[in-house]
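Mods, move this if it's the wrong board.
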Amino acid sequence: MMADSQILPGMVPDTELIDLLGRQLRDDHDAQLVLCLELERLADMLPALPPPRRVRRICSHIDFVTSRYFRRAETVFADLMEFQTNPALRQMLESLASMHALDAVHGEDVVAALWDGTARGSAARPEELGYMLRCFFDGCRRAVALEEALMLLIGAGLERKPVLA
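Not the wrong board. C-alpha coordinates:
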Protein backbone atom coordinates (compact mmCIF):
# COMPACT_ATOMS: atom_id res chain seq x y z
CA MET A 1 0.00 0.00 0.00
CA MET A 2 1.22 3.43 -0.91
CA ALA A 3 1.77 6.22 1.59
CA ASP A 4 -0.73 9.06 1.60
CA SER A 5 1.49 11.12 -0.67
CA GLN A 6 4.75 10.56 -2.45
CA ILE A 7 5.37 14.27 -3.05
CA LEU A 8 8.19 15.76 -1.05
CA PRO A 9 8.19 19.45 -0.13
CA GLY A 10 9.49 21.57 -3.01
CA MET A 11 9.29 18.65 -5.45
CA VAL A 12 7.51 19.25 -8.74
CA PRO A 13 5.59 16.05 -9.52
CA ASP A 14 6.12 14.51 -12.93
CA THR A 15 3.53 12.68 -15.00
CA GLU A 16 4.77 9.28 -13.79
CA LEU A 17 4.11 10.27 -10.17
CA ILE A 18 0.74 11.78 -11.11
CA ASP A 19 -0.17 8.50 -12.84
CA LEU A 20 0.88 6.49 -9.77
CA LEU A 21 -1.17 8.69 -7.43
CA GLY A 22 -4.07 8.57 -9.86
CA ARG A 23 -4.00 4.77 -9.92
CA GLN A 24 -4.00 4.66 -6.11
CA LEU A 25 -6.96 7.03 -5.92
CA ARG A 26 -8.82 5.06 -8.60
CA ASP A 27 -8.26 1.87 -6.57
CA ASP A 28 -9.69 3.71 -3.55
CA HIS A 29 -12.62 4.84 -5.69
CA ASP A 30 -13.30 1.30 -6.86
CA ALA A 31 -13.46 0.13 -3.23
CA GLN A 32 -15.75 3.02 -2.31
CA LEU A 33 -18.09 2.33 -5.21
CA VAL A 34 -18.29 -1.37 -4.25
CA LEU A 35 -19.27 -0.26 -0.74
CA CYS A 36 -21.92 2.06 -2.21
CA LEU A 37 -23.44 -0.84 -4.18
CA GLU A 38 -23.46 -3.01 -1.08
CA LEU A 39 -25.19 -0.28 0.93
CA GLU A 40 -27.79 0.14 -1.82
CA ARG A 41 -28.53 -3.58 -1.66
CA LEU A 42 -28.76 -3.36 2.12
CA ALA A 43 -31.27 -0.50 1.79
CA ASP A 44 -33.36 -2.63 -0.56
CA MET A 45 -33.62 -5.44 2.02
CA LEU A 46 -34.80 -3.23 4.90
CA PRO A 47 -36.26 -3.70 7.51
CA ALA A 48 -34.26 -6.95 7.51
CA LEU A 49 -30.55 -6.63 8.17
CA PRO A 50 -27.69 -8.90 7.14
CA PRO A 51 -26.10 -11.26 9.65
CA PRO A 52 -23.88 -9.65 12.33
CA ARG A 53 -20.70 -10.87 10.62
CA ARG A 54 -21.63 -9.01 7.42
CA VAL A 55 -22.68 -5.94 9.42
CA ARG A 56 -19.25 -5.97 11.08
CA ARG A 57 -17.54 -6.12 7.67
CA ILE A 58 -19.72 -3.33 6.25
CA CYS A 59 -19.12 -1.12 9.30
CA SER A 60 -15.38 -1.73 9.11
CA HIS A 61 -15.41 -0.82 5.43
CA ILE A 62 -17.31 2.40 6.16
CA ASP A 63 -14.80 3.30 8.90
CA PHE A 64 -11.86 2.54 6.58
CA VAL A 65 -13.30 4.65 3.75
CA THR A 66 -14.04 7.62 5.98
CA SER A 67 -10.72 7.53 7.79
CA ARG A 68 -8.14 6.23 5.33
CA TYR A 69 -9.43 6.91 1.82
CA PHE A 70 -10.79 10.37 2.56
CA ARG A 71 -7.57 11.43 4.31
CA ARG A 72 -5.40 10.05 1.51
CA ALA A 73 -7.36 11.92 -1.17
CA GLU A 74 -7.22 15.20 0.73
CA THR A 75 -3.48 14.81 1.38
CA VAL A 76 -2.65 13.98 -2.23
CA PHE A 77 -4.72 16.86 -3.59
CA ALA A 78 -3.36 19.33 -1.04
CA ASP A 79 0.19 18.36 -2.05
CA LEU A 80 -0.64 18.73 -5.73
CA MET A 81 -2.29 22.11 -5.14
CA GLU A 82 1.11 23.60 -4.29
CA PHE A 83 1.74 23.68 -8.04
CA GLN A 84 -1.61 25.16 -9.05
CA THR A 85 -2.56 28.80 -9.42
CA ASN A 86 -6.16 28.27 -10.48
CA PRO A 87 -8.44 29.47 -7.64
CA ALA A 88 -11.27 27.25 -8.93
CA LEU A 89 -9.16 24.17 -8.20
CA ARG A 90 -8.55 25.36 -4.67
CA GLN A 91 -12.29 25.94 -4.23
CA MET A 92 -12.92 22.39 -5.49
CA LEU A 93 -10.49 21.04 -2.91
CA GLU A 94 -12.26 22.97 -0.14
CA SER A 95 -15.56 21.55 -1.37
CA LEU A 96 -14.08 18.06 -1.32
CA ALA A 97 -12.96 18.45 2.29
CA SER A 98 -16.47 19.62 3.24
CA MET A 99 -18.02 16.68 1.40
CA HIS A 100 -15.72 14.24 3.17
CA ALA A 101 -16.55 15.75 6.57
CA LEU A 102 -20.28 15.41 5.93
CA ASP A 103 -19.87 11.88 4.54
CA ALA A 104 -17.85 10.88 7.61
CA VAL A 105 -20.71 12.03 9.87
CA HIS A 106 -23.20 10.13 7.72
CA GLY A 107 -20.93 7.08 7.93
CA GLU A 108 -20.86 7.29 11.73
CA ASP A 109 -24.67 7.51 11.77
CA VAL A 110 -25.00 4.49 9.48
CA VAL A 111 -22.60 2.42 11.58
CA ALA A 112 -24.48 3.29 14.80
CA ALA A 113 -27.85 2.51 13.21
CA LEU A 114 -26.62 -0.79 11.77
CA TRP A 115 -25.31 -1.94 15.14
CA ASP A 116 -28.50 -0.80 16.84
CA GLY A 117 -30.57 -2.74 14.32
CA THR A 118 -28.35 -5.79 14.67
CA ALA A 119 -28.87 -5.75 18.45
CA ARG A 120 -32.65 -5.49 17.92
CA GLY A 121 -32.80 -8.09 15.15
CA SER A 122 -34.05 -5.64 12.50
CA ALA A 123 -33.94 -1.94 11.69
CA ALA A 124 -36.09 -0.06 14.22
CA ARG A 125 -36.92 2.72 11.74
CA PRO A 126 -36.20 1.32 8.27
CA GLU A 127 -37.16 4.53 6.43
CA GLU A 128 -34.72 6.52 8.54
CA LEU A 129 -31.92 3.99 8.04
CA GLY A 130 -32.66 3.90 4.31
CA TYR A 131 -32.32 7.68 4.17
CA MET A 132 -29.02 7.56 6.11
CA LEU A 133 -27.68 4.88 3.77
CA ARG A 134 -28.65 6.95 0.73
CA CYS A 135 -27.02 10.08 2.19
CA PHE A 136 -23.79 8.16 2.68
CA PHE A 137 -23.57 6.36 -0.64
CA ASP A 138 -24.76 9.35 -2.68
CA GLY A 139 -22.21 11.54 -0.88
CA CYS A 140 -19.42 9.04 -1.52
CA ARG A 141 -20.29 8.89 -5.20
CA ARG A 142 -20.27 12.68 -5.47
CA ALA A 143 -16.87 12.85 -3.75
CA VAL A 144 -15.46 10.19 -6.08
CA ALA A 145 -16.71 12.15 -9.11
CA LEU A 146 -15.14 15.36 -7.77
CA GLU A 147 -11.84 13.60 -7.06
CA GLU A 148 -11.78 12.19 -10.59
CA ALA A 149 -12.42 15.67 -12.01
CA LEU A 150 -9.66 17.12 -9.82
CA MET A 151 -7.19 14.49 -11.04
CA LEU A 152 -7.98 15.29 -14.65
CA LEU A 153 -7.72 19.05 -14.14
CA ILE A 154 -4.57 18.91 -12.03
CA GLY A 155 -2.92 16.43 -14.39
CA ALA A 156 -3.71 18.64 -17.37
CA GLY A 157 -2.32 21.69 -15.55
CA LEU A 158 0.90 19.94 -14.56
CA GLU A 159 1.52 18.66 -18.07
CA ARG A 160 1.74 22.27 -19.25
CA LYS A 161 4.35 23.21 -16.66
CA PRO A 162 8.04 22.46 -17.10
CA VAL A 163 9.21 19.61 -14.88
CA LEU A 164 12.45 20.16 -12.98
CA ALA A 165 15.05 17.45 -13.43
